[in-house]
Sequence to fold (181 residues):
Amino acid sequence: MTEPKKLKVATCSLAGCFGCHMSLLDIDEKLFELVKVVEFDRSPITDIKHCGPCDIGIVEGGVCNAENVHVLKEFRKNCRILVAMGACAINGGIPAMRNNVDLWDCFQEVYHYGIGLENGQIPNDPELPLPFDKVHPINEVVRIDYFLPGCPPPADAIWKFLTDLAAGREPKLDYEMLHYD
Fold:
């Protein structure tokens, strides 16, 4: 008997804290069940750096620089379904709090006036991506198929969401799984 084809899943983190990936890992031993129905492509679990053709792409974090835009567009191009996971991907989250501060003023505060810095210089290395003036939610750059809210979403919600998709069902998360009151 032939095993059913596994869904190929890729993940990436943009401007965020990596908490959504930690919540994915908080599925704990259910990860063993998950890998029976999915195969991870690009993700911290595999350490693959580029996204190949995938069924599901999961993105955490907002867009704060040109490198984020490049990674996000690569994901959209290679993923049949793209999921914005967490507050940062959905609305910019905590990183977007800097949207209320002029970027130059922010740099001055961090690199020139920061505690413990004497004559600090703003980093200027071609390897460092230059930040945009604002942090943007990912749906301002590419089309998103699903939004999975939370900061981060609970592990059980991620589990239910992925197993619904793997089973060919429309993901449906009950209020109890995503309430924040």
Q: What stands out?
A: The first strand starts at residue 7 and ends at 13. The chain has one domain: 7-97+133-175. The two ends are 48 Å apart (CA to CA).
